[in-house]
Specification:
single chain; 240 residues; Rossmann fold; nine-stranded mixed sheet; 7 helices
Length: 240
């Protein structure tokens, strides 16, 4: 599998996605847009597109953030989905996916930062790609927004603070508002970039502070993510 990862900021690193790709022998290419690396011109050069998170929103303009072109990323996502590629969006990436398909991003009822449980919907429990998650699963979070829903979108998982944690936009296209890719290294990067914001939100019920964030064990959710990605690759290969 040829994986292409769009990374918006150094502190929003791919984390466990890179671990998974390396362990399975998949090749990985990047568009580190914060370094000025371009997006792919064509979708023919990859089998899977992963679009990571970032402090931007789909409404952020190039004037606001010169290295982030929301419209160009949405166009890439739309082309990849139309071409039958695997597409996974994480946080901002999930919001861009919804926008690319005509569903505007919305504010989440709650800001969530830390490790909190998600609950699978009946549709999620019935979806073989998520059967190994079980009814509930503790996963990482770092967001204030959530992806929009197209008429055909299926909500796979929710949380107490956000009704759209995982969204199926198609058989090979999934948006994850949650962060199952978190590792201790990624958490340290995020804390370093966000300590003032964390302090300002210390009274929020779904916001953990640095000590708690560092104490969380992210291994189990990483393993669940790996199995999901394996099933997604299997589904992709079955369609070729």
């Amino acid at each position: 599998m040829r994986i292409h990862i769009v990374v918006h900021e150094a502190f929003e690193a791919p984390g466990a996605y890179e671990t998974w790709a390396a362990s399975r022998g998949h090749s990985v290419a990047y568009s580190r847009v914060y370094l000025g690396e371009p997006l792919p011109i064509s979708v023919d050069g990859f089998d899977m597109l992963a679009v990571m998170g970032g402090p931007q929103s789909p409404a952020t303009t190039v004037e606001d953030c010169p290295h982030f072109d929301s419209r160009a990323e949405q166009a890439l996502i739309a082309r990849a989905i139309a071409a039958g590629k695997v597409v996974v969006g994480v946080c901002l990436g999930s919001q861009l996916m919804g926008e690319a398909l005509g569903a505007p991003c919305e504010h989440s009822p709650e800001t969530e930062i830390g490790k909190f449980p998600i609950t699978l919907t009946p549709a999620g429990l019935a979806n073989d790609k998520f059967a190994h998650f079980g009814p509930t699963l503790e996963v990482g979070h770092w967001h204030s927004d959530m992806p929009g829903l197209t008429p055909d979108a299926v909500v796979i998982a929710t949380s107490e603070g956000c009704p759209r944690q995982i969204v199926e936009y198609g058989p090979l296209a999934y948006g994850f508002q949650c962060h199952m890719e978190f590792t201790p290294e990624v958490i340290d990067l995020l804390i370093a970039a966000s300590e003032a914001d964390l302090t300002a939100r210390k009274t929020n019920r779904f916001v953990q502070q640095p000590a708690a964030l560092r104490a969380n064990d992210y291994t189990a959710m990483n393993e669940k993510l790996f199995t999901f990605l394996d099933k997604l690759v299997e589904a992709y290969r079955a369609r070729r």
